[in-house]
Amino acid sequence: MANISEELIKEFLRKKINPKISLHEYFVDILGGLFPGILFLLALFIATVPPIFNLSCIFLEKQGNVFQIFREYVIATLQTPSSIWIVFFMIFTLLSYIVGHIFYRRDIKTPDRESFKLLKSEIEKEYMDAIITPAVSRLKRIKSKKENGRHFWLNLSLRKLKKRKQFKILNNKKHQLNIEELLRDNLACKSENDCQFPYPNYNSYLIKRNLMHLLDFTQWCEADERSGDTKVDRKDRRSKTYVNILKIRLRYFHPDKCAIIIRNEGHVRLASSTWHIAKIIRNISWFGIGIVLLSCLLTFVNFNYSNALTSRELLKNLGWILPVFMAPFTILLLSQYLVKYIQKFIHYQRLREVFYVLETVYTAFSLTDELDRLKPLCDK
Predict the structure, then answer these.
(1) How far apart are CA 250 and CA 242, in angstroms?
(2) Is 218 exposed, middle or buried (0-12, 13-18, 19+ CB in 10 A)?
(3) Number of Cβ within a 10 Å radius of residue 99
(4) Which of 38, 47, 129, 367 could serve as a FRET partner for 9 with CA atoms 20 to 30 Å apart?
(5) Does the N-terminal peptide bond of residue 51 adopt cis geometry, omega within 30 degrees of 0?
(6) How far apart are CA 131 and CA 40, in angstroms?
(7) Do 130 and 69 touch, CB atoms closer than 8 A?
(8) Structural domain boundaries of the chain?
(9) pLDDT, averaged in runs of 10, over the chain (380 residues)
(10) Cα–Cα distance, 183 to 178 (Å, whole number)
(11) Angstrom distances, CA of residue 323 to CA of 46, 50, 329, 370, 376
(12) What is the DSSP letter of 369?
């Protein structure tokens, strides 16, 4: 009886959730919601407040004193009692968390697909270069003789075409199949429509990297002849469910092994929320630039040209436009950079996320001889 009690206690302690993991989850969740919210509110402030402030000064006919008016506002703000600053900080933090959490929970599918499209175009370009460059090189060696005149003009015409049109001319079914195979092996899906986590061709991705021991956990994938799998139609299976089941069982039986998985999920969601924020801020920046251009137009329309110092006064009034214009323009450049930069790696991050789940599950359950707990997921 005592032995049974000891075994039950050990089993309970083993299954008990590690408090460090729980704290890490909350920490990732809080920061994952807070950081995007702060980023969004600060970018929104910089992109809109200076242009609107400058436009209001024009309507109040105080454009020449923009700096002085702004300085007075700053001094008045700094003289605000500390208690009001504390309340403002708390409201700002709470609002940042709420706004950021909305972005943090947005669907990752959209940035993932945009990332896939970008990576796919790079793979196609590399393949086209490998196929077309030798063909163009062969044509370059043809001399401009009369008997080869047709080939000479073909050479010039082909070199003037864009890469995609060159590929279309030299393309055939074999090349299309080769590109699909490259996409399956490197991006785990062969088309934009198939780009759904955890990806229908993830088994091909594993086979390319000789990770055959993980194939038993990819029961949602389409068949790959290299693995000896004969099941072709698996589209009726909800692929995300399989990965979620693996996560749930790993958390229940081996919660201490979940830290790296939680961290990877946090990184992916943070990148996704930043991408969504950058897309929205980019549009808001254009709105701010539009307000600046409107300010320029109103300055020209409302200026008193009867003054003897016309050019000097006009330049003085327009001189405030440049620093005001740089605020939304800088945010526009940064947001555009973030969108492009995140699209370069977020799909690879999602592939890495699936790999860590599968490898952690395999390692945790195989080392403890508990792979039978996963049998319902591994039966072919």
Answers:
(1) 12
(2) buried
(3) 20
(4) 367
(5) no
(6) 45
(7) no
(8) 21-108+256-378, 110-196
(9) 48 50 68 89 93 80 60 70 83 92 90 95 84 63 47 49 56 71 91 89 92 87 64 56 86 85 90 95 95 83 56 63 88 96 95 93 78 60
(10) 9
(11) 12, 9, 10, 65, 64
(12) T
Cα–Cα distance, 93 to 30 (Å, whole number): 11
Structure tokens at 99: 């706004």
Helices (H), the chain: 2-15, 19-59, 66-78, 82-104, 109-140, 149-160, 163-170, 173-187, 202-208, 239-253, 259-302, 310-318, 321-367, 375-378
Phi, psi for 145 (deg, rounded to 5): -85, 160
Structure tokens, 300: 């020209």
Secondary structure, 3-state, 300-322? HHHCCCCCCCHHHHHHHHHCCHH
**Other CB atoms within 10 Å distance of the CB of residue 346:** 24
Residue 360: C-alpha distances to residues 4, 37, 306, 371 (Å): 30, 32, 78, 12
Gap between the Cα atoms of 36 and 102, Å rounded: 9
